[in-house]
Design a protein that fits this description.
Helix content of chain B: 40-55%
Structural class of chain B: mainly alpha
Shape of chain C: elongated
CATH superfamily of the largest domain in chain C: FAD/NAD(P)-binding domain
Strand content of chain B: under 5%
Structural class of chain C: alpha/beta
Strand order of the largest sheet of chain B: 1-2
CATH superfamily of the largest domain in chain B: Alpha-helical ferredoxin
Number of strands of chain C: 34
Strand order of the largest sheet of chain C: 10-7-6-18-29
Largest sheet of chain B: 2 strands, antiparallel
Oligomer: heterotrimer
Helix content of chain C: 25-40%
CATH architecture of the largest domain in chain B: Orthogonal Bundle
Largest interface: A-B, 64 and 66 residues
Distance between the termini of chain C: 24 Å
Largest sheet of chain C: 5 strands, parallel
CATH topology of the largest domain in chain C: FAD/NAD(P)-binding domain
Chains: A alpha/beta (about 300), B mainly alpha (about 160), C alpha/beta (about 650)
Radius of gyration of chain B: 20 Å
Number of domains of chain C: 5
Order of helices and strands of chain B: HHHHHHHHEEH
CATH topology of the largest domain in chain B: Fumarate Reductase Iron-sulfur Protein, Chain B, domain 2
Number of domains of chain B: 2
Radius of gyration of chain C: 33 Å
Strand content of chain C: 15-25%
Bound molecules: flavin-adenine dinucleotide, iron/sulfur cluster
CATH architecture of the largest domain in chain C: 3-Layer(bba) Sandwich
Shape of chain B: globular
CATH class of the largest domain in chain B: Mainly Alpha
CATH class of the largest domain in chain C: Alpha Beta
Chain lengths: ~300, ~160, ~650
């Protein structure tokens, strides 16, 4: 049994509830024990443009709290995962920075300790649970459904720090989807960006990014998209309608699932146990094809 | 034209090397933001940083258009990490009194006061019902800071932005 | 020790020394020192009257040590050693004292102190001189033959030059034919002459030359001995064809049912399991590829054996070894192309229509997989838009840091290939800088940048994606026109980075040649001695010293050959005077010195029941590393023995007063 600190970050516990619900319901069934981490909070990633030290400080704080608990961190969000690993790497190589952070943390009674290990949802599924185990638990294979994996920028980049997915040849994500019985495939710019960070500067342009992404995915014959990042989900699922109207292209309509939701569907969990009723994109189509009712 | 800005940026983007940029523009070919906002060009931002003429970038606020996709840094042949140069310029612009986008200020305030970039909201479900954490039987969200030290530290670091 | 009789000569060097200190005073002071028989000063010691003065004194006073206090020994040590020789003394009984660079030039403002220093330096030399002894160098004859490793254009040119000078040459080539990369090229920039047309006649010259013996499909596995007398062990890989019987008729190749990707066509074409590397191969002898041969893989077939009219097929052939005794070695193993699939963003190896420059050479060649038609690999259609990417992996901190030196010119040539074969095609060249530095290259660039529908775009693609029809989709920012260009190309050509061949690392260890940060062979001096190495008798030719185009390669190879000819023509190699010498009584055989020696000159062996170090006098270059390492003082270096150095130090430290 692998045991992890469930680190939710900001977006998931405040609005992307379906990710949290599906993780809480699916992972324990795969033999993963989740321990709540209520004193966690923001990883600082959104603050880096305002002040890089604030970012470093927030992640250093999280790493220290987790190290004290002696458990590895399970980061659900790509941004959180990148933050924790990047700051760990920066601190590892910069003594002055370590001293500066140790001093700040001492103000709140925390001892700097960056030893905590960091894992992303995809790694837990692919590396800890394993594709074979997942395959063996599939009750409702996702037959005939071609899923575009959408790893999201910060699952791959920056690649000079350890990443959950292979940054050069992303393949873990697709192999998990394949284990569920679905089809996978190539489309241009699979490792591309959802544009979420552009929102505060220009929502309109962020939507243009979403529209062009989804259009390509449709063109390449996919029937669904899957992501594992709450920011990407917010953009390609929640803002899909807005993106469609922004460019006035009716074609831009495709169901989007969290990877944990797909795993849950295949394992036979009820849609509500996976928060599927909270997805904004037209997920019903895919569920219908699998003979699952959203409201069962 | 002088290297002061470049030196400050170098300090902030360690261990990357903005001084080595040879203007191949591979970063801009990759850039997510450039595709939708053509005025935003990471190679030009790096070139202007080297020259020390970043006033225009700060005044216009164009540096905030970066989507932080990290592609520029991924593909740069000279390990410049333009995205980190941009982050450094954002930091410097704030230190010099320029304003960040309003939403970011709100986020910062929320992080200091609540521990999250926004308060938990209620979302609309497919059945047209509003759901919050409680209705979804998710554990209550508590303020994560165990000591007042955290917000105090953060306020200090964020300085002017938070006011 | 026999009577030490020293003569001291203090030079004025015009005003250089004489204008600061009083040389006569220094000479006078020296005259009072022990063992000094005569001391003098003179305005120009190095002039003929100065030299004559010393020569006559040696005879007149029966001197057996000479000290000259003058300029740097780098300047005039050989001059004064000549004086000693003429007077019948061993030249290493001379001791120079540098009172110019070390004294009057740097202490001009404190002349009194400078004079004191001169006196001290001379006194130290006097103490040292007592411990000087005669040093005699030894000569060893050189074997007048050479091994050339690598049969590309560099190896070919070097072999021909050596052979024409009457030197026996063994040319060792790893592949089954000589020719190297140049044989794979269609045309050559900047003149666009057909590569094979200018190369194959030279290949034939090599094969017919009475002084050249080719060992193809072979590699060097060991080198022992030293400059002038190397023993080179060569492994002849099994070809499964008895080349002495084979006539190269090709009947076997024609009938062979086995198929494999053709290396010579960079994987774009197909060859048989028994094959010639290419039709004009030299030697024109086939090889069986055991990985694809049906007999070796499945135990069936043997068609080649049946059809060979001379019975040359030999499935039981095993590797053979020969040992060649040569005076010099020329390394000419060229370069390799960087594995472009490592630039994952460009999709090489993933997308069929992303090809390397060398693959385009093969597509364009009349004997290539498409018989000279430029067709895209995915569907054999003519491309309408072709993108050429420069610096693919070069000048890149994540891949290869240096410039490949021929990518730019090759790209311009590739523009020609495409426009020549497909006049209606559009060609987009993505560059960062166009480095058209060679003779005629700028004119070449001018010509092709002016062609219709050829666009030089100053920008570099970052990510190439594949469209559903196999075309390639990507964005490039053009910093000349300040716009992002959305490209859809049918074919993308990567002008890839260049690296040393994979087997260079093991070979370089065998040869004891150093490498530069890029891994290429390190030359003795980057400007003045670019074709020699730190190992005597080992020369560098062509791209193994660093990426080079053909003109530079040929010039370099000819220079290497000339240098090797000079080395061999001299007829002997001579040991350095500053040899390391072992005092066998003191040596404990600890062997610390063995790995320290950069030239591999020291071995430790049993002698009279005891392990002692032995120095190969020809290999030793007198660097002194061993002497400094030796814990027991057994290893001493001629002219720098502990006694000599310490006696000098003692005086300088004031011990003599
Ligand atoms: C796409 C492309 C186009 C080009 N076009 C031009 C052009 O138009 N004009 C121009 O001037 N230059 C051109 N060049 C450059 C040209 O290829 C080189 O200048 C030239 O090949 C260098 O010759 P070389 O003999 O040093 O090396 P190579 O050609 O690499 O020959 C080395 C030889 O050594 C052999 N070898 C390797 N390792 C061993 C070993 N361990 N033992 C024994 N043998 C070994 C190899 O098999 C090979 O035969 C081009 C290069 C490329 C990639
Ligand atoms: S930052 Fe890097 S990718 Fe961008 S222009 Fe400079 S060297 Fe090229
Ligand atoms: S990180 Fe910013 S600058 Fe870099 S490529 Fe992405 S959007 Fe452009």
């Amino acid at each position: 049994m692998s045991k992890f600190l469930l680190f939710l970050g900001c977006t998931i516990p405040t609005k992307q509830y379906s990710y949290e619900i599906s993780v809480r319901n699916v992972l324990p069934k795969l033999g993963v024990e989740l321990v709540d981490f209520p004193e966690s909070g923001c990883c600082g990633f959104p603050l880096k443009g305002l002040n890089k030290k604030a970012w470093i400080y927030m992640s250093a704080r999280l790493l220290s709290l987790a190290s004290k608990k002696g458990l590895p961190i399970l980061a659900l969000c790509n941004g959180c995962d990148t933050s924790l690993r990047k700051i760990k790497d920066l601190l590892m190589h910069d003594k002055d920075l370590r001293e500066e952070m140790a001093k700040l943390l001492s103000n709140e009674g925390v001892k700097l300790d960056i030893n905590a290990k960091v894992y992303h949802t995809l790694e837990v599924l692919h590396d800890f649970v394993g594709v074979e185990r997942i395959k063996s638990l599939v009750q409702r294979p996702l037959k005939g459904i071609k899923v575009a994996s959408y790893p999201g920028c910060h699952m791959l980049r920056p690649s000079d720090i350890p990443r959950p997915e292979d940054p050069v040849e992303p393949r873990k994500y697709d192999s998990v989807i394949k284990a569920l019985g679905a089809e996978v495939g190539y489309y241009p710019d699979k490792g591309g960006c959802c544009g979420a960070t552009l929102l505060p500067y220009s929502a309109k342009h962020a939507l243009l990014i979403v529209a062009s992404k989804l259009k390509t995915i449709k063109e390449y014959g996919f029937s669904a998209v899957s992501t594992s990042c709450p920011y990407c989900m917010e953009m390609i699922d929640a803002k899909q309608d807005a993106a469609r109207s922004e460019v006035g292209d009716e074609d831009i309509s495709i169901p989007v699932f969290y990877l944990t939701q797909l795993v849950g569907i295949a394992m036979g969990l009820k849609p509500k146990e996976l928060g599927l009723n909270l997805n904004v994109s037209p997920v019903e189509g895919v569920l219908d094809r699998l003979g699952v009712s959203l409201y069962e | 034209m002088d290297s002061r800005i470049l030196n400050e940026v170098r300090e902030l983007v360690k261990p990357h090397s903005p001084q080595y940029c040879y203007q191949c523009a591979k970063c801009t070919s990759a850039c997510t933001a450039t595709k939708v906002i053509p005025e935003y060009k990471p190679h030009l931002i790096v070139a202007l940083t080297r020259l020390g003429s970043v006033k225009g970038l700060m005044e216009s606020g164009i540096i905030w258009a970066c989507t932080e996709c990290w592609k520029c840094s991924e593909y740069c042949p000279q390990d410049v990490a333009p995205v980190e140069v941009v982050i450094a310029l954002k930091n410097l612009s704030i230190a010099m009194g320029y304003k960040p986008p309003e939403d970011l200020k709100v986020m910062a305030k929320n992080v200091v006061e609540l521990g999250y970039v926004s308060p938990p909201i209620e979302v609309l479900s497919k059945e047209f019902e509003m759901y919050g954490r409680e209705a979804l039987s998710l554990p209550e969200l508590v303020k994560p800071y165990v000591s007042e030290g955290t917000p105090t530290n953060l306020k200090k670091l964020l300085g002017g932005v938070y006011e | 020790m026999s009577d030490v009789r020293i003569g001291v000569y203090v030079c004025h060097c015009g005003k250089n020394i004489g204008g600061v200190i009083n040389p006569a005073k220094v000479a006078e002071h020296a005259g009072k020192l022990p063992n000094v028989v005569i001391s003098r000063d003179y305005v120009y010691m190095c002039s003929s009257p100065g030299q004559l003065l010393i020569e006559e004194d040696i005879k007149k006073y029966n001197l057996n040590r000479v000290i000259v206090a003058a300029c740097s020994p780098r300047m005039h040590e050989p001059t004064f050693q000549g004086v000693l020789k003429r007077a019948g003394l061993n030249p290493w009984l001379l001791q120079m004292v540098n009172v110019r660079e070390h004294d009057t030039w740097v202490h001009e403002n404190v002349p009194e102190k400078a004079e004191e220093k001169a006196k001290d330096l001379v006194a130290a030399a006097v103490a040292r001189a007592a411990h000087l002894y005669e040093i005699n160098t030894v000569r060893a004859p050189v074997v007048k033959s050479a091994v050339v490793i690598g049969g590309g254009i560099a190896g070919i040119r070097a072999s021909l030059d050596l052979a024409n000078a009457g030197i026996k040459v063994y040319l060792i080539e790893k592949k089954q034919s000589i020719g190297g990369k140049m044989a794979q090229l269609d045309k050559t920039f900047p003149t666009l002459d057909c590569s094979q047309c200018i190369l194959t006649p030279l290949m034939v010259d090599v094969s017919r030359h009475p002084n050249i013996e080719i060992y193809a499909y072979s590699e060097v596995v060991d080198v022992s001995g030293s400059a002038g007398d190397f023993k080179v062990k060569v492994r002849l890989k099994p070809t499964y064809v008895d080349w002495s019987k084979c006539t190269g008729c090709g009947a076997c190749v024609e009938k062979c049912p086995g198929r494999a990707p053709k290396e010579f066509d960079e994987g774009l074409g197909v060859r048989k399991a028994i094959y010639f590397e290419f039709p004009q191969a030299v030697p024109r002898r086939p090889v069986i590829d055991t990985e694809h041969c049906l007999w070796f893989t499945k135990g069936i077939c043997k068609v080649c054996e049946k059809v060979c009219p001379v019975g040359a097929i030999d499935y039981k052939q095993v590797e053979r070894y020969v040992e060649l005794n040569v005076g010099a070695i020329v390394v000419a193993i060229g370069y390799e192309l960087y594995d472009l699939s490592k630039l994952s963003e460009y999709g090489y190896g993933k997308f069929k229509n992303v090809i390397s420059g060398l693959q385009l050479e093969r597509l364009s060649s009349a004997d290539g997989p498409t018989r000279g038609k430029i067709l895209r690999p995915s569907d054999g259609k003519e491309p309408k838009t072709v993108g050429i990417v420069l610096c693919a992996g070069s000048r890149d901190e994540n891949h290869v840091k240096y410039c490949c030196r021929f990518g730019c010119a090759a790209a311009i040539k590739h523009v020609y290939y495409i426009k020549h074969a497909l006049p209606d095609a559009k060609v987009l060249v993505f560059y960062t800088d166009v480095r058209a530095f060679g003779k005629g290259y700028e004119e070449f660039y001018q010509k092709f940048r002016s062609e219709e529908n050829v666009f030089f775009i100053r920008g570099r693609p970052a990510e190439i994606f594949e469209g559903r029809d196999g075309s390639l989709i990507f964005d490039v920012y053009d910093s000349n026109t300040n716009q992002l260009i959305n490209v859809r190309a049918d074919l993308v050509v990567l002008e890839g980075a260049v690296v040393p061949p994979k087997d260079w690392e093991p070979l370089r260890r065998i040869l004891k040649v150093s490498c530069d940060p890029g891994g290429f062979a390190l030359e003795l001096h980057p400007k003045l001695r670019p074709f020699e190495t730190t190992s005597d008798g080992i020369f560098l030719a062509g791209a193994i010293q660093g990426p080079k185009d053909i003109p530079d390669t040929v010039a370099h190879a000819a220079a290497a050959a000339a240098s090797a000819i000079g080395f061999l023509a001299k007829g002997y190699v001579e040991s350095v005077p500053y040899l390391a010498v072992v005092n066998e009584d003191l040596c404990s055989g600890c062997s610390l010195c063995v790995p320290i020696c950069p030239y591999g000159a020291i071995s430790v062996s049993e002698k009279e029941g005891k392990r002692v170090a032995k120095v190969d006098v020809i290999k030793c270059k007198g660097c002194g590393a061993c002497a400094a390492t030796c814990p027991s003082g057994a290893m001493q270096q001629n002219y720098f023995t502990d006694k000599q150095v310490l006696s000098e130090v003692v005086v300088l430290a004031g011990g003599a007063k």
